[in-house]
Amino acid sequence: MNDDEKKILVQVAKMYYLEDLTQSDISKRLGIYRTSISRLLKKARDEGIVQINIIDEASTHSEMESRLKQLFGLHEVIIVASNESMSGNDKIKSVARAGAELLSKMIKDEDVVGFAWGRTMGSLIGEFNDCPQRSAHFVPLVGGPGDMETKYHVNAIVYSIATDFGGEAHMIDAAAVLERKETRNEIINSNYFRKITDLWDKLTVAVVGIGAPISNSNMIWTGFLGDKEIKHLNSHDAVGDICSRFYDSQGNVVNSELAERTIAIPLERLRDTRITLALAESIEKAPSILGAIRGKYINALVTNEETAAEVLRLAGDAAV
């Protein structure tokens, strides 16, 4: 290996492991094919340029994963490491990466795969490297967010991941929450939207984020929730949302005037999928995650260790 080869291996390794760039980001910056980035990273490990020191926390994580599966009857649970030195973005990215790896194994030909929107969902973009090609449909489960960066928009998420898998992307040309329920009804009943609802009826895999309790909800900073809506949701003890639909700590749907203006798959429909995978982390979201589990809206979970421990604590698991 000559000096020029070593230089590019070091550069790519630093960008990926130290700067936390995705392989897609590195490809764009350096003008190198994304498939080549994967090979360069492997070579950097083979040549000893990258040396990975593994702290074996797997046994602890494995025990927590087993407890969550047994306690709640979940099909799949993956817990990633977390510590105080990690930034909020690092924690989100670690969950997204683990989620992408799991999804690459789960998605099959002819699947209908639905996605929600949000920070963690947006972090999936660029994480499906060399994934298997699938003849599948990819569809939003909720209308677009309000004042939010493009990378978090549900259509951007669906299009990017559908492209990675070689599948067909479908879009929703409407906001998640509209000002009038009459407008929402017109859209839902339109010929254009019938294709989306038909795909929802055939949904086999759903990938969702979980909204935090109302005070920290994404719905506030995207402009969908005003004082009136917040007061109503709080009066019904709403603890979180999936696809902009709210539920309480026991998983009961909170019906409200807001729900009548929302364009999103009904939560009950998520109980009928082969896999409904939630990607969510943070201690603040633990009550929301537990409510989603109790409502049986999710049957698979990727989270981190501090969040998993809090979910078990809230559930009354004496072993935590």
β-strand number: 9
Describe the largest sheet. 7 strands, parallel
Question: Overall 3D geometry?
Answer: globular
Order of helices and strands: HHHHEHEHEHEHHEHHEEEHEH
Span between N and C termini?
A: 51 Å
Average pLDDT reading: 88
Strand order in space, largest sheet: 1-9-8-5-2-3-4
**Poorly predicted ranges (pLDDT <50, ≥5 residues)?**
219-223
The computed structural class is alpha/beta
Strand content: 5-15%
The oligomeric state is: single chain
Provide the gyration radius in Å.
Answer: 20 Å
Provide a descriptive summary of the structure in words:
The chain contains 13 helices and nine strands. With 320 residues, the protein is of the alpha/beta class. 43% of the residues lie in helices and 12% in strands. Mean pLDDT is 88; it is low at 219-223.
Structure described in brief:
The protein has 320 residues and is α/β, with parallel strands linked by helices. It has helices at 3-18, 23-30, 34-46, 58-72, 88-106, 119-122, 154-165, 181-188, 191-201, 218-221, 227-235, 286-294, 305-314, and strands at 76-80, 112-115, 137-140, 168-169, 205-208, 238-242, 245-248, 275-279, 300-304. The protein is 43% helix and 12% strand.
List the helices and strands and how they pair.
Layout (H helix, E strand, L loop, with lengths): L2 H16 L4 H8 L3 H13 L11 H15 L3 E5 L7 H19 L5 E4 L3 H4 L14 E4 L13 H12 L2 E2 L11 H8 L2 H11 L3 E4 L9 H4 L5 H9 L2 E5 L2 E4 L26 E5 L6 H9 L5 E5 H10 L6
Parallel strand pairs: 1-9, 2-3, 2-5, 3-4, 5-8, 8-9
Antiparallel strand pairs: 6-7
Helix pairs in contact: 1-3, 2-3, 4-13, 12-13
